[in-house]
Amino acid sequence: MDLNQPILMDNRNLRQDVPDTNAFFAQTLQEMERLPREGNLVTDPRIVTQVPCPVCGDAGGDQLFVRAGFLIVQCPTCSHVYVKNRANEDYLLGLYAASQSEQAYRRIRASDFHKRYWRAMHTKYLDYFKSLGCANRNVFDVGCGAGNFLDTCHETTDFDLYGLDFCEDSFDFITSVIGRDNYYFKQRIEDIDFGAKRFGLISLWGVLEHIVDPKSMLARCAEIVADDGRIILLVPNLFSRAFKILGITTPTIYPRGHLHYYTQGSMKHLCDNAGLVIEHVCQELPVIDLMHPFIRYDDALIQDILAKDEGYYHVYVLRKG
Ligand SMILES: [Zn+2]
Q: What fold is seen in the domain 15-320?
């Protein structure tokens, strides 16, 4: 398999095929617009906290833009892009457990289109992991959401599966796939005693951009991954072609929940801190559905986007240093 070749699927009719997509973005925007603001920013300490760079600790930060009351800055030291007035952890965990928009999001992920798309992508990276021949066959999906990745692992491998999430809607499904004992439900990875258990593969699909303290989460993953194991993580790429075309309306700019946009510089900083090295940086989703009215879709465009590192997602494959 070629990790550098992204999964391509025709998504131009996504909004007709998956009507919850529009509902989700409208709902999240509405929920953010309802928050009280002062000088165009959400400042209420019950909702947000002003933070230094979560990757390197630099107190500064150059303003990129404000979206729905949240200030997005770039760290002058490590290049990390993050939300300066970030939502508090208790507030966020409540959101993931129960808010309407998160429920709409899980319905989107349960749609046929997304199931096919994510299954193809998950399989690609799972095949890579299988090709390594790692002896440890424990797979731990951190932030397993609706359970799509664990379901794919369950159907296509005989690996031992573990998951962690806070989501109440998908509890029954996930425990039916991996069993109650293997599900770390509503637990923080830093607080779990894993004993001698180690994992051959730890996956964080669209998780690290939501986490208040990614430094401590990745360091914990490094402690519990097997010596020859891998960590796979997918995060949005702010500086994508989609952002160049759609600007502030790019769906990934969802600052209540997306607290971070990793650059390759800030990801390296995090990995150095955790004793991990970046083995591969891959790109996925070069073209999102909303771009179609503004592009001529052809292979040359895809190749240009990839050459300029402007895919919508980055997938990092990490191993111990
Ligand atoms: Zn920094």
A: Rossmann fold (3.40.50)
